[in-house]
Predict the structure.
Amino acid sequence: MPYYRSVGHVPRKRHTQHRSPEGTLYFEELMGEEGFSSNSSLLYHVNIPSTVVDYRAWELPDQSLVPNHPLVPRHLSTHKLFDEGATGVDAVTGRRLLLGNGDVRLSYVVADAASPLYRNGIGDECLYVEDGEAVIETVFGDLEVGRGDYAIVPRATTFRIVPTGVARIYAIEASSHIGPPKRYLSKFGQLLEHAPYCERDLRMPTEPRVVESDEPVEVHIRHRGPGGVAGTVHTVQHHPFDVVGWDGGLYPYAFNISDFEPITGRLHQPPPVHQVVEGHNFVICNFVPRKVDYHPLSIPVPYYHSNVDSDEVMFYVEGDYEARKGSGIGPGSISLHPGGHPHGPQPGAYEKAIGVEEFDELAVMVDTFRPLDLGEAARATDDGVYAYSWSGGSDGSHA
Ligand SMILES: [Fe+2]
């Protein structure tokens, strides 16, 4: 995030000696984006942060992607991907890949185990907590997250995810940085009055997390590699959570979807009013409970639209999704509306929406500007008939 924070103990002047009460030097690390030309933070480590003593390949779960060909809209069911009950799955190694391209990968996990230490060397992660609670322990300190929270974790941050019970997480992994769109920000980076959220809605780590241990520990690293994504495990000499203080404008943060203030109007508002953040070649929007269009002749559900330049992925969280009535879509569903196919409300929804004053819906949308390919989790749960849901269905079941 673009504004300054300071947590724990930092020296009066940057790049100067910083010592423990016993007199030993702390080791300064700069985490800086875009070379040294964008946001950065300075972290003060007890130990040198580079002490690799061993390494090995991390065999990631199936990362294969196949084109959406023949081109059709699809309905996926994330809730069919994981067994009920104790599974020992964690929110890093257990992610199942739904959709992806060179810019972003969308995966889903139901986790009840603590993840290993982890670092994404490809891009920022936006983790949407569909349900449950977790502590995201990071080198900057902890983020406590729960139902409806987005957690945005900058690339190269060392962290792990510790569920409290069972946590359902929709993971949006960018190949770039993720942040608010420029139009929400002043020229100096403050969120403007017309933005649907502001700094008060954001939560950041408030205290350092220091683990005192001399045991070597493994860090799982996701990075660019053959086929796009690869994994490596580094064993480092000291626990990476040894930062006594940090300051700067780069750190993980969280905010809850219920703090997103919807923008409404007399006539249908286009998706950009629902935008939360963006990465390179994609945007993340959300649809939250709100009053809807109040022109006397308005039609509150969307008009039919062609995503001329994007694939549109809707993750349905809860509520009553007016435009998708009759399509089989419910909580945990994902719809993929690819570029090249005009889409809109299912039959009947257009007329039924007239006179409705409020929508009780909660959904997270990712629009990508390059086509999305299908991961193994999409191939495993594609209902195979969603494409017919506007026409009555080839078997008549999706009228
Ligand atoms: Fe759409």
Q: What stands out?
A: Helices lie at 349-352, 376-381. Residues 376-381 form the longest helix (6 residues). The chain has a mean pLDDT of 94.
